[in-house]
Structures are given as structure tokens and as C-alpha cells.
Amino acid sequence: VRGQGTRLTDHAGxxxxxAFAGLWCVNVGYGRQSIADAVADQIKQLPYYHSFLAMxxxxxxxxxxxxVRLTPKSVTRAFFGLSGSDANDTxxxxxxxxNNLRGKPEKKKLLARRSAYHGVTVxxxxxxxxxxxxxxxxxxxxxxxxxxxxxxxHYRFAQPGMTELEFSASLAQELEQLILREGPETxxxxxxxxxxxxxGVFVPPSGYFEAIVPILRKYDILLVADEVICGFxxxxxxxxxxxxxxxxxxMTLAKGLTSGYVPLSASMVSESIWQVLExxxxxxxxxxxxxxxxVSAAAAPANLEIYESENLVQRAAKTGNYLQQRxxxxxxxxxxxxxxxxxxxxxxIELVANKSNKQSFDPxx
Length: 365
Prior knowledge:
Blueprint: E1 2-4, E2 7-9, E3 15-17, H1 21-24, H2 33-45, H3 58-70, E4 77-81, H4 84-101, E5 109-113, H5 122-127, E6 146-149, H6 154-157, H7 164-182, E7 187-192, H8 208-218, E8 222-226, H9 240-243, E9 250-253, E10 265-269, H10 271-278, H11 294-309, H12 312-331, E11 337-343, E12 346-351
Parallel strand pairs: 5-6, 5-7, 7-8, 8-9
Antiparallel strand pairs: 1-2, 2-3, 4-10, 9-10, 11-12
């Protein structure tokens, strides 16, 4: 019923440490008065106006400029929605229209990874590589447009004796083989979380993105970095793309953008994609009633100001190093702990029934 700092209080007065930060989102903690004030002030001034037909509002314009400053230089434009799921839907529509306008209407197939989480709308769930998001919903939407590559988890999926670099090379080979099988002229984009969050906190093996990205560039395939979980300091840098030296063509932002105080997402787009869209007479017939909502757009800068004034990203790096070190020191030798993995302020402990052969526990337990 209440939240303050990192603590939650239930109806009976019991207090809990919210180590999960809501759903990976309350990055600045609960009870931030400055965000509440920014929301209240905006409601008084302009509580709503749509962003269709070349309309805009001042908070969203200022926020877009701020995000361009913070994100990698490869992305220069922002389209605002309300959730990571709808942002990935927006990304897909941008990608498909982009290729239509380039005279490449066959270049529509999308690549992601098994165990990836990209959302739960029909399109974003099709990108997600989690069976529980597919069964019963008739997704993936079109199995001839959505493809899932192997999970980049060395502990579970590497061959015995294979180094992380060798495993990364094998994953890159799998990617290129799929591209050549389907035809490079049909593959539009590769969606990737820098660290895979909801699917199991899978940290990419050494050399993974260094092996993957050149193949994408070779075949004119866009890289979409889904930063919904990794973004805004969780890994100890502003974005996971910074952590892994990525220059994505598109980025998906949400969660930490407002620390969950109000709904907001952003699809960040490269200048080269924007120039194709802008230079066309075909309208970008997409948007939502609440796209670029002024109240959400006013909350985000107040939230971002806290990151900067309190050095939260730098503090996450320092505290994250301590967290990772202490987890390993205290638990790595435990007979039921198979692997401890993570970067910065995100971590996972994989429990096993047998440490020597990595046997998992029966899911029914």
C-alpha cells in the first residue's frame, strides 16, 4: 500500500525490500517528490493533447532532445508510446515501412533469440522467445517472418570444453547460416537485449556482439537494442549498448525512463532510417491516443534529473561490482548453486540438483 525508497509496506504494515524494483523499473526508488510535482504541474498546465497530424507538445519535444543526448550517437529521433511492448510493435512497423520505401518489400523477416523477452502484444510476443507467451495465443504471428536463434548462454548451451569465444563464434555461424538459408534480401532486423532479462538474466559470452554485429552489417540487417531492462543505469552505464560498445540502428526504451511512476516508452531511431521516412510522400500512419503524452513526458525529465544529480549510474556501477563480487564469494561454492551471473545491479543465481553435471531441479518441485 506504500513505497518509500527501496521499501514497500503491505496492508498489514509488513515491510519488504523491493530488490526487483517493481518489474525492473523503479530505478530511482519510491516516493520521489520531484517527479510527483512535475506530474502535478503538467496536469495543471496541459493534461493532454494528441501527437497526430504534426501536433506535438513541449514536454515531449524537450524529452526527445534529452534522450538523443544520452543515448548512443547512432540514434537521433524518438517516437513515444506507453510500454516496451508497444515500442517494439512501433519498431517493427518502422522497419517494415522503411524497407518498403527503400524498394525492398521482401525484406521483412525478423530475428530474435530463444528466451528473449520483447513484450506481450501480438507482434512483440512473436519476437519474444518464451513458450509461455506463445501457447494459446496463436503466436508467433507468422512463423515465416519471426525466427529465434539459440540462447547465448554458455553455461547451459556450449559444448563441453568450448570456450566463451568459441561459443560466440558458433552462435555467429548459426546466425549467418540462417541468413543465407532464408536469403539476406528477406531479413530486416535482429532484436537483442544487451543482457537478456526476464528469460533468465543471460549475460552474453565473451566476443558475442563482436561476432554478431559484423554479420548484420554485411547483410544490411538492422540492429535493434531492446534496452527496456538494461537501460538507465542498471548495468552501471547509461545503457547496455554502452556496456557492450553497440551502435544500434534502433533502441527500445521504457521502464527506467520514468522509473515506472507513469507509463512511457520510446522508440529511438537512426538518422538514416528517419531520412527515408521523412523523405517519402507515404504517411507514417501509426500512433496511439496517448503517444507523447505530456504528463508522462514531464515526469521523465524529473526522473532523469535524479539519475544525474545523484550520480545514480556511477553509483550503480560501484554498488553493482560489490554485489557481483559478494554473491560469488558467499554462494558460488554452495552445492546447489550452478552458476551466478550478472552485470551491475542485475544478477541471477541458477540452482541445480547436481552441480557436477548441471542437472536442473524438477520444475514440479
